[in-house]
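User: I'm curious what two different proteins look like when written out as structure tokens. Can you demonstrate?

Assistant: Sure. I'll show them one after the other, since each token string lines up with its own sequence. Here's the first protein:
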Amino acid sequence: MSIYPEEVPPEPDRTEGALHPRFTEQVFGHAAAEADFMAAATSGRLHHAWLLTGPRGVGKATLAWRMARFLLATPPDTNDDALLAAPTSNIPDIPTGHPVARRLRALSEPGLMLLRRPWDEKRKRLRAEITVDEVRRLKDFFALSVTDGGRRVVLIDAADEMNKNAANAVLKVLEEPPANAVLLLVAHQPSCLLPTIRSRCRGLHLSRLGPADLHIALAQAGVEAADGGLAELAEGSVGAAVRLAALDGVALYGDLLALLATLPRLDRSRVITLAEKATAREAEAEFDLTLTLFDRLMARLALVGTTGRLPPEILPGEGEILARLAPDPPTGRAWADLAQGLTARVRRGRAVNLDPAALILDMCLSLDQMVARLPA
């Protein structure tokens, strides 16, 4: 049974098929980031703004919510000896029954303001960006008196989804932060943020998870990763693994590999089958995943060609196909060049409502032409 009421709108900061990060208690593979935060929190030099960066789906939001739980459960004048005695090498666990933990799960904690892409009730869809109207709510939030003398935490997920006006409004808060306020900014593409925002935050960079940590994190998210190919295909991202599992991504990757195995004699029947699956009614997620996996496949071809090294196989026989289609560095560079523009062109075509099946066919023909130019 789902913990989410049916009437609750989609949440932009939750991966489909997984719990929202506020329900996830543990973070795996990021001990160094936790240690950096706790060293600041216990030294009396807690920075007022933290920027959590790294690949999408590696646990940035989970860590941000973990930080928020700790900050709100341990106000500056706390006398909780158990929490203060906790080791500083990692963020202490806040029990699930703690009042702050319960309120955070219910999004009813008065000390927290969550900024994310809002739901457009009129159009019944999420807005494409975080608007300045969302950020303006901070004025009332900071104006509220904190009766227990505790902290106020602002969590922005994702900060790189703010439009220009929203970003400028957040910058003003960073320049003159209220007392006992901490801002936690999650960013998948920090280069999209204003340099002045980045410069006023203390950074915590989270890297891709190793196989062991990824499997543990997936188990916490309720996803079985018995197939080793899923972990390799997800490239250390829990979010990517959840999405791949929900859409049977490993099987789809196998379809793409089988298609590439026919090049340079493109199997049109396989292309038609692929296009039908990716462009069926209400199959937008499958279409997007198909393009993402084409990107991943071309990146692996570029890697094999330029380095001469085969990565761990996602599926049996993949190495042979990659080695044949990317036999040398010049070919590897050609695959890299093709990858830069091919799926982006298809996405642009989809955005202007071109026939998605025709777009898939055009992409496959481009791959066929690429392989046809290889030396025999």
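Here's a second, unrelated protein for contrast:
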Amino acid sequence: MDKIKFYLPDFYNKFALNELIINMLKEYPECFYDNIEIGAVYGCFPGSLWNGGRVCHGYTRREQVLTVLKEYNDRKIPCRFTFTNSLLQEKHLYDTFCNMCLELADNGLNEVLVNSPLLEEYIRKNYPNYKIILSTTREIKTVEEIEKEAKKDYYIIVLDKSFNNTDLLEKLNDRDKYEILIDSFCMDSCPNSTKHYREVSRAQLEFDSADFPMCPAINRDFYEFLGNETFITVEDLYGKYFQMGYNKFKLDGRAFNVYTVIESYMYYLVKPLHRDRVRLSVLKALERLEG
């Protein structure tokens, strides 16, 4: 039986939390749902010009990049770069830092999310060892368009959340190739998603803050999102969708505080009987690390 794979957010800024969860899954498997594994942890190192989806400014030293890559890769867990900036020009392809990150992680295990055809072509040519994944930020919303992309050489295609809880998922073939974003914090049928992604891309390139009204979802509690039309419940995930042949599920969370992300991990990964104990263990361990 295929494993159920989860893709966790933010390999850098939520490194401590992810490391705790990954270690606990190995040490206390009885607390977690059966037959699951961490497929990858996605994100970027601060300072990555090619980053998209969420603004991530800052600075990361080479030694920090190497340390993070080693900690995940030693556990056979890929780091998946969110290089999904949609506004890249040819001049941006030669960014020293992003190329350094790909060079340091070029071991055949790690992965890259793409949106820009320009960057995709550059990575395929210069870093052929990477698994290339088509990002949900491409916002493809029809079965015909998705299956057209599926014929190309993508390792995985991350579906737009508009597919969730609809008969569109029943119409797709080769379901092992698709990844479902199961807990998008964005509002249903958000009219500003395209504008949001483009503005994030602009802000990343111009070392600026994104200039759009703060999404109302940011300050909501995780459990408020259970009412979203696109939210996939834990029962449907382990029941209907896994039985349909889907086994790749992405968790949102790069833009959210660590406590919100903890709750998503508790909900999807941990058996109800053990959630309180695992949550407490995680919180106490994070407190020790911060102290």
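A detail about the second structure: The mean pLDDT is 93.
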